[in-house]
């Protein structure tokens, strides 16, 4: 005999071959943003850390006197490298696909480091 109640197969999740529920909802492209953010965070964080290291190097390098051109050259080189690395983070962030995945707080530390490196470069007195 058949039951008089209609079966509601839409209420139960579909079962695939592995006996796990199958999600048949349409895939939204924004669902991949978290994975993309993790992938893009690697170069952003590494470039920011490298810029921080070169800024630290520029700040902690002290010339022995006005005659110590090697120290002044080292300060300028470290500042230039910090600015280039911070600029690379800024350029990476300015691409529209990266901006959609990573918001502005990801780029702010690199920009601050770049500005601090420019200030140290100008105030180095070389």
Give the structure's gist in a few sentences:
The chain is mainly alpha-helical and 126 residues long.
What does this structure look like?
The chain contains four helices and two strands. With 126 residues, the chain is mostly helical. The chain has a two-stranded antiparallel sheet with strand order 1-2. Strand 1 (14-15) and strand 2 (21-22) form a beta hairpin. Helix 2 runs antiparallel to helix 4 (108-122). It starts with 13 loop residues before the first strand and ends with a helix.
Ends apart, CA distance between termini = 97 Å
Average pLDDT confidence is 81
- The class by helix and strand makeup works out as mainly alpha
Strand order of the largest sheet: 1-2
Order of helices and strands: EEHHHH
The main β sheet shows up as: 2 strands, antiparallel
Q: How much β-strand is present in the residues?
A: under 5%
Count every helix, treating DSSP H or I runs of 4 or more residues as helices. Answer: 4
